[in-house]
Amino acid sequence: MKSKPHVAVVGAGAFGGWTALHLSEQGARVTLLDAWGPGNSRASSGGETRIMRGTYGPDQPYTETAARGLKLWQKYERRWKRQFLHRTGVLWMVSSTDDAFERGSLQPLREARIEFQELSTAQMKKRWPQVNFSDVRWGIFEPECGYLDARASCQAVVDSFMAEGGIYRQVAVLADGLDTPPLRSLRLSDGTRLKADHYVFACGPWLGKLFPETLGNIIRATKQDIFFFGPPAGDTRFTDAHLPVWGDHRERFFYGIPGKGRRGFKVADDTRGRNFDPTNGERFVSQATLKRVREYIAFRFPAMKDAPLIETRVCQYEQTADSHFVLDRHPRMNNVWLLGGGSGHGFKHGPALGEMMADLILTEGEPSDVWRLARFAN
User: Fold this and answer.
1) Considering 20, 121, 313, 316, which has the largest number of Cβ atoms within 10 A of its Cβ?
2) Which of 260, 267, 344 is nearest to 299 (CA)?
């Protein structure tokens, strides 16, 4: 009888944690490693919430993986008897005269069977009177979608992985020689080594640091500022009971998540920030970005014009040039897989990508061309 393969997964965020769980469920022996723990403050999967959506424009694989993700989130919520996906709906406001992205999203949504509604400005005004829709031409509403509890679900995935018999170690992998074949073992920060049959590196913004020759010019970490504003006491118009998650396609793309429980009203400018060191970078938000976000809120959500800033967060995107993920073998090592490049939109796809990664390893499959490293070749 063939023995179970041993897979080392580096990174316990949305990509790595789900990969480890799916591998373990399919019979592999798995060791999961993370330097600071699942959903930690430095990680791209840290923070309170992430958006779950299917609107992605034309000619892309993400609406389909989002649809698979929706099913998997629901499956594991039932299994764990916990809720992580809050189906507030997602509203896309089309302010730009160029609506090719939104128009091109409709057919992929239909094909993936993600429910959606095309809304007129009048319909949106009637439904959400707390929003100023004065320059919005039309909208897409996805009622099955909403937002995910990020940090908490990362921990739940790792807990489930360990309950399956997986081994989790909070320890850092040292970068020495990882980019030079062959990779026979990992050198760890506690002085030990870990040997496995397969290695999956799903360590987000650190991928370029661990593999400088292969990924150093492909994945870069960018600083992204997130703001939470406090509505007046007793005003529920800006909570998830009365407002969906929203995206606003203007000259800049703004997005937000309504307040939940004791958290504030989350707003961010999706414009890519400057390069950022995820290990040592100090996480202070930009005053210029705060000013821009305040001006936007005053316009789009007039009742929140003077709302106090109650919390800030600096996270990072691990950005690729085309915003597509990287899911491929190392070009010179068949037993090493590189999984990352979430580029700010990856979290929701974690369950589906983890399932895909596990299948590729255990069946010796080939990844989709859209995610392969060859696309960056000159």
Assistant:
1) 20
2) 267
